[in-house]
Design a protein that fits this description.
seven-stranded mixed beta sheet, four-stranded antiparallel beta sheet, mainly beta, 11 strands
């Protein structure tokens, strides 16, 4: 089990950038796939990006080319760099850790992440037009 704390959210104008951080403590960080999810008001939570212990990354189409996920294993922190932000990116952003072998990428449906993952408390991102 890992404990996760997200940070870096805030208010930004459309076209701006933010870098979210997901700091982990607890279990061996290297054994986990880390995912980023977001939930906008009135909408379902959606997975947007992940990185596994091999460094393989994945993204949903709506953020490809704009968002970049990276990991600093020494600091046990995963980052989500978000460029060219759009108002539709406004949401609470969550990171989640799931044991490698159970979940390997963001393509895994949400229910599996909910069952198998350790979630952070979320950080608000608001993009103004």
């Amino acid at each position: 089990e890992v404990q996760l704390v997200e940070s870096g959210g805030g208010l930004v104008q459309a076209g701006g950038s933010l870098r979210l951080s997901c700091a982990a403590s607890g279990d061996t960080f290297d054994d986990y796939t880390i995912g980023w999810f977001r939930q906008a008001p009135g909408k379902a939570r959606e997975g947007i990006s992940s990185i596994n212990s091999d460094g393989h990354t994945s993204y949903i189409d709506s953020v490809k080319g704009r968002f970049s996920i990276s990991s600093d294993n020494a600091k046990k922190t995963v980052y989500l760099l978000m460029n060219n932000l759009k108002p539709e990116d406004t949401a609470v952003y969550y990171c989640v850790a799931a044991k490698r072998g159970r979940i390997d990428s963001i393509a895994t449906p949400l229910p599996f992440w909910v069952l198998a993952g350790d979630w952070g408390q979320g950080t608000q991102v608001t993009v103004s037009s």
